[in-house]
Amino acid sequence: MTDIPDELVRLERSCEAERAKLAGLCGEEYDAQWRAWRGAAEAFQTALSAYAAREGGSRYELEQSVKQAVRSTQEDPAP
């Protein structure tokens, strides 16, 4: 897959940013941030599924392409 929609890249970056915020948290703060991460992940997965269904491509291949594109352009935000 060569054409990766900007919206999917933005959503995956948001998901990774929320995941990184989990570092060092515990208790209620961790739980609240975990919910934020899960919400971001659900938004990404929903958009990913919709795009793959609309375009008729492989959802798995699209997801891997988006994740690779995001990770190749940034360092892991988690310490």
Tell me about this structure.
Helix content is 73%, strand content 0%. It has helices at 6-20, 27-55, 59-72. The N and C termini lie far apart (31 Å). The model has no long low-confidence stretch (mean pLDDT 91).
* Approximate helicity band: over 70%
User: How many strands appear in the DSSP assignment?
Assistant: 0
Q: How much strand?
A: under 5%
Largest sheet: none
Order of helices and strands: HHH
Q: What Rg is obtained from the alpha carbons, in whole angstroms?
A: 14 Å
Number of alpha- plus pi-helical segments: 3
Distance between the termini: 31 Å
Structural class by helix and strand composition:
mainly alpha
Mean pLDDT: 91
What is the overall silhouette?
elongated
Low-confidence stretches: none
List keywords for this structure.
79 residues; mainly alpha
Task: Outline the fold blueprint.
Layout: H1 6-20, H2 27-55, H3 59-72
Q: Could you give a quick summary of the protein structure above?
A:
By secondary structure, the chain is mainly α. Helix content is 73%, strand content 0%.
